[in-house]
Design a protein that fits this description.
Blueprint lengths: L1 E6 L5 E7 L1 H4 L5 H15 L58 H17 L3 E4 L9 H11 L6 E5 L4 H6 L6 E5 L5 H6 L2 E5 H21 L1
Parallel strand pairs: 1-3, 3-6, 4-5, 4-6
Antiparallel strand pairs: 1-2
Helix pairs in contact: 2-3, 3-7
């Protein structure tokens, strides 16, 4: 077990929390992180690129000249790839770039990303974040008080918080994620992570449960 200091939103010490070494002090496996980031980005590719082959280009239904006796090369259509304005040979077609990874690989990659951020001193644990309305200014003041307003910040919360999620939406470089949506790309994209104490427990429950199921299946 490892210990993380817990602070208030006023940046005053509020105790500590025990965290699982298997999740926050795991080996940093760069190849797993790379594979998971590639998987995430592949899902974002639209895959709408395309080109017309000779069948899709209009015209060219008539043979341009007879097969033999003209002294010219044989041609079947003016829409063949070698003709100007003809179809494209082996061109791109609309398709999905998405590919999958085993769940245990994705979980291990997320544990590696969290462990990397902890080693870099990039994780701040706060006892709780509470807003009584849609107040972007309050979020800015909170980040300034914690000394992380100048860096991109990922705020990780346990469950839905409409006030916080909407209040941080207009801040450049600041994003709010629930534990259920926590992912490797966003963890590494933001230089700082602000995690609530409740979210730490939810992260351990999520990743610990996946790790236990993987061990049980072996």
């Amino acid at each position: 077990m490892a210990k993380l200091d817990v602070v208030t939103i006023e940046n005053k010490k509020a105790g500590s929390v025990d965290v699982s070494a298997a999740i926050f002090e795991a080996p940093v496996r760069l190849h797993l992180i790379h594979a998971e980031v590639r998987r995430q980005l592949s899902r974002r590719q639209r895959g709408t690129h395309g080109s017309k082959n000779r069948a899709a280009v209009s015209g060219g239904g008539k043979k341009p000249w007879r097969q033999k006796g003209t002294g010219r090369a044989r041609q079947g259509t003016i829409r063949a790839p070698q003709w100007a304005g003809g179809g494209v040979a082996f061109g791109p077609v609309p398709r999905s770039h998405e590919h999958s990874l085993p769940k245990k690989v994705r979980s291990a990659a997320l544990r590696s990303a969290l462990s990397h951020q902890l080693r870099q001193g990039s994780i701040t644990v706060v006892d709780q974040i509470s807003l009584d309305g849609y107040k972007t200014k309050r979020v800015v003041e909170m980040l300034q008080g914690l000394g992380i307003a100048d860096a991109g910040v990922l705020i990780v919360i346990e469950a839905a918080d409409p006030f916080l999620e909407a209040s941080a939406r207009n801040l450049d470089g600041v994003n709010v994620l629930r534990v259920a949506g926590l992912n490797v790309y966003d963890v590494l994209l933001h230089p700082k992570l602000l995690v609530t104490k409740a979210a730490v427990g939810a992260i351990e429950e999520r990743l610990g449960r996946s790790g236990a199921s993987n061990r049980a299946s072996k």
